Amino acid sequence: MAEDRDRDVYKVPPTRTPVFERTSSLPNPATFIQTAFSYIVDAPVTFVREWIERQQAKNKYYYYHQKFRRVPDLSECLEGDYLCFYEAEAQWRRDRMVDQEIVEIVRERLGACKHREGPNQFQNCAKEAELLAQVTKAYQDRYGDLGVHGNARTCLMKQKHRMMEERKAQASASE
């Protein structure tokens, strides 16, 4: 109401908040405890937390995931260089875990597409199904038949045998 000319027409509703009337001259113990807690516990903790946040704000470090440098492949290691063998094995295990996660993510995307599309999944999710087939084939070509205890050396030997078979097939096809 910009102007209160018509107070009789638009009456102000009565408030439902009771009026606090003090019946004692003693201070309220709840306000005393709350004030004491605020000064004794809350203020020092808040001060320390804000100080730590200020210190951390000076040295911002965004941590997403650990980044490892690429190490030489097992085929690039010198004979008897056991440290290189170990690093190549660790790199191979990380690559295998990454490839497993890629397959799992593509599989989850296909499952979400199928769930979303319902009966039209075969025509609307064909691209995701083709991508899953490609990713799974690539994973099987690289890591298939290695078993649980597969390592970088057996994977390298499998790759070597596959390349030799491809060369033989190409040579026999050209004759």
Main traits of this protein?
single chain; 175 residues; mainly alpha
Set out the fold topology.
Layout: H1 29-58, H2 82-117, H3 121-124, H4 126-143, H5 152-174
Helix pairs in contact: 2-4
Question: How would you characterize this protein structure?
Answer:
There is one protein chain. The chain is mainly alpha-helical. It contains five helices and no strands. The radius of gyration is 36 Å and the shape is elongated. It starts with 28 loop residues before the first helix and ends with a helix. The model has no long low-confidence stretch (mean pLDDT 87).
Distance between the termini: 99 Å
Query: Which range does the strand content fall in?
Result: under 5%
The gyration radius over C-alpha positions equals: 36 Å
- Catalogue the unreliable spans: none
Q: Structural class of the secondary elements?
A: mainly alpha
Number of helices: 5
Count the E strands. 0
CA-based shape: elongated
The helical percent reads: 55-70%
Order of helices and strands: HHHHH
- Average pLDDT taken over every residue: 87
Biggest sheet details: none
Summarize the model shown.
With 175 residues, this protein is mainly α. The protein is built from five helices and no strands.
